[in-house]
Amino acid sequence: MSATPPAALAGAPPRSPRPYWQGDRLFRATTRAAACGLLGLALAMGLLLTLAARPSIDAFGWRFLISSAWNPVTAQFGALTAIVSTLLSTAIALAVALPVALGVALFLEEICPAPLRSPFAMAIELLAAIPSIVYGMWGLFVLAPLMADHVQPALQATAGRLPLVGRLVAGPPMGIGMLTAGLVLGLMILPFIASVSRDVLAMVPQALKESAYGMGATPWEVVRDVMLPYGRQGLFAAGILGLGRAIGETMAVTFVIGNAHRLSASLFAPGNSIASTLANEFTEADGDLYFAALIELGLILFVITFFILGALQLWLRRLERGQGGR
Amino acid sequence: MIDPLTRRRLTNRAVMVLASGAAALGLTMLLWILTDVARQGAMALNWDFFTKLPPPPGMAGGGLANALVGTLAMTLLAAAIAIPMGLACGTYLAEVGRGRLAGAVRLVNNCLVSAPSIVVGVFVYLLLVKPFGHFSGYAGAVSLAILMVPVITRTTEEMLGLVPTALREAALAIGSPQWRLTVEILFRAARSGLITGILLATARVAGETAPLLFTALNSPYWTRSLAKPTANLTVTLFNYAMSPYDDWRSLAWGAALLITGAVLAASITARLLLRDGRG
Lengths: 326, 279
Description:
The complex is a heterodimer. In chain A, a hairpin with a 4-residue loop joins strand 1 (70-71) and strand 2 (76-77). Chain A contains 13 helices and 2 strands. In chain A, helix 2 (22-60) packs across helix 13, helix 4 runs parallel beside helix 8 and helix 6 (132-158) crosses helix 8 (178-202). By secondary structure, chain A is mainly alpha-helical. The longest helix of chain B has 41 residues, at 4-44. Chain B is an all-alpha fold. The chains are: A mainly alpha, B mainly alpha. Chains A and B meet through helix 1, helix 2, helix 4, helix 5 and helix 6 of A and helix 1, helix 3, helix 4, helix 5 and helix 6 of B.
């Protein structure tokens, strides 16, 4: 958020006896119109999606959210499988990306020799710019065969023998599936979370760290007792932003998730996230109900992301207000 | 028993090794992806790639010239739509708006920045494809523009916020109207930052696939008009990579290298610009 004083100053209409400039009136009206256009756009998205999803909403009601049916032939549709797949792949991605991203951020801020710091940081930011489709393609051609030939059999030979956990890794090791999708997704959001986390850690005041060092704390203790508590809200926000990015990601997932509308206990089994379902079936949907059901899936994704990110914004805003004077 | 100090030192050492390991792991994985793309892609790139149409399935040779042109055209059109809109919204947030409306716009904009691109694709499909009855490059450009506007809005607001208040006061004090102050002084002061934001936003949408799937679709022919389905690199990459033909897959790697290279080049340029502008 930018500081408010300049806007407050510049925004005040000049108090002169003359009628104030026509140009300014136009200027303000134009920018305000653009800003309202942005609001209108978000509103139009929600409205149009809801409208187009009406046949499906009318036909299935709330059952759409808890039904795992997805049968274009009998025209029975439910979103449960897609929602679960979306959440599961996002959870795997976060579980992989968060610790590694935090490690990268710590390394950049505390361990990395100073001259290497900015090239490393730039490399991480550049990696966040690589298009997601490239991650997806790499996942399909490089990671998936590797998973099928080495990782998955190894997992089955070890974890597969345990009770309960064994069910997570059951089934044929095909390479593609929920686990691989989660991993590719995690890799994709890793640089993003790392660079936001690094910014958060960089904001910890030097004086705070120095006083902890002065008391004889080791670097790890400074991180644990000073930096992490100081930046915990920012780090949480970084995680949520990563989540927001992962949950609606299409291309990195569609390549490797396997595209099957089935709920399975195994992480090796193929699934179908909301985004990948849309990518695969939207242009091929015949039948009004099928089409409407797909749009309702999109609507659900739209609502979930807006809800999560909106809540995050409001929470951050309240925090900011709470520490007002700082 | 180890004494507490040794234990603390050992813990510290262990954590530092773990963090360095995480950094090494992250960088290795990402460099691995880049080298794979560079290696496989370099084999596909040649003169034909940039000048010829895609080959029929199973045939060797050919290129993605039509997709290259289509992607360029749609990205430029999207930028032409999104830049004025994003600049205006960002200016509103930084210079004009206060109170409820500005708060709401900022909130919605921050949500739109992370809005799933595939949902934007569905929205534009309902808005511009279904009513007209056919896919079109225009619809593709609009969906890319919708993804660009929030990014430009956000960076514009941030960059204008960095301009010192004294400049505004000085201009207003000599009687400059606010629009001249904004356009001639603030935009100029924040120029490198604004250009960076625009470049990064353009780079981001140039690599987008999901919003084009239902809007521009794809086409194996030259694009004569953006009113028709328009060939583009990313959807072509998607279709070819999923196909069972080795030649098509090879072209897909070439497209991946080209997109990645272009996006990285734009990002690096943007960052250098920003550094020069501030230095």
